[in-house]
Amino acid sequence: MKLVTFNIRGKRSIGKVVGSTVVDLTASDPALPTTMIEFLQGGAEALSRAKALSVESAVTYPLADVQLEAPVPNPSKFLAIGMNYRKHVEEAVAAGFKVPDSQVWFNKQVSCVHPPFEAVQMPRASTQLDYEAELGVVIGQRCRHVSAEQACSMVAGYVVCNDVSVRDWQMRSPTMTLGKSFNTHGPFGPWIVTRDEVPDPHALRMRMLLNGELRQDVSTAEMIYDIWEQIAYLSTVMTLEPGDVLATGTPSGVGVAMKPPAFVKVGDVMRVEIDGIGHIENSVVAEPV
Question: Model-level pTM?
Fold first, then answer.
């Protein structure tokens, strides 16, 4: 299934996308929750009820008539791994970053969560705005101390992410969090593709296009630490909750590594595509005064 959080006539709901139609899950089955986190907490029963709803008998809207929000508008955690593709490590070193000898994680503060097709802001504090195409993982079960072998069953599904980064602010702190957490800098979506529809998340082509120009192009097979290792590593430290979002790393081709650096400008359009998942697209506007 493709699970969405959407707005229609000022009302937020959750749904599933079937072709060009959105099935309103809550309106069609009052036993289903009204938010995505509660839906994911419902586990197999909620998924089964949602799958059983047919377009013919459910409350539906044309996809073109709804406003898609981030599929999980309020995750408890939005975490991202740094330098998880070898060629990106090489360009990061050239840009002045230290080579990690283990997984390097940072927070994207949840206040940066943003819809998949709405404009991203160029902050007033910097012009060093950059893109990072990433495959996102949405956790489906509360879990701690998960082995790599168990990790797949903890996943609800996958999303397209752009880990929008403000490079000078990122360099000010070894945690990178400030430069990764400006308002609007966490767009993801457009939906959660449930894990049963993604046979191998490590065999997906991922691309970033800036104004139609291909900037990043990679297979997720090139990750240094795969998704299962990532979940095992994180769950050693913390409890992962349904709805938590993990951004699994970006490949080479980021703007800061170009010579000279080629940062994103107001008026540019960033588009991230992942085969089997979908795409998100965000224009860049000036932050309001």
Answer: 0.96
